[in-house]
Amino acid sequence: MKRYRLKNNFKGLKKGTQFYLIAESEFIGIKDFVLRTKDLSIRISINEKELHKNFTLLN
Q1: 53 with 38: CB under 8 angstroms?
Q2: Which string of DSSP letters, residue by residue, matches 31-52?
Q3: Which residue of 3, 19, 24, 56 lies most exposed, with the fewest beta carbons within 10 A?
Q4: How confident is the model at residue 25 (pLDDT cuts 50, 70, 90)?
Q5: What is the pTM for the complete model shown?
């Protein structure tokens, strides 16, 4: 499962918060991603542009 870290404060979430990528979908060229916080308490749905702008992939 891919893990991401928040680069900037985003939608009321603090910089550095870790997320798991739960789902990835594409409909007519538009990609949507569903992420959940590490403790699974918060779920957000974002587009590809927001993902690349605000999140860093962790290995």
Answers
A1: no
A2: EEEEEEETTS--EEEEEHHHHH
A3: 56
A4: very high
A5: 0.84
CA–CA separation, 49 and 28 (whole Å): 15
Q: What percentage of the chain has pLDDT greater than the value 70? A: 100
> Buried (b) or exposed (e) across 18-56, using 16+ Cβ within 10 A?
ebebeeeeeeeeeeebebeeeeeeeebebeeeebeebbe
Name the token pair of 46: 């974002």
Q: What's the confidence (pLDDT) of residue 59?
A: 79
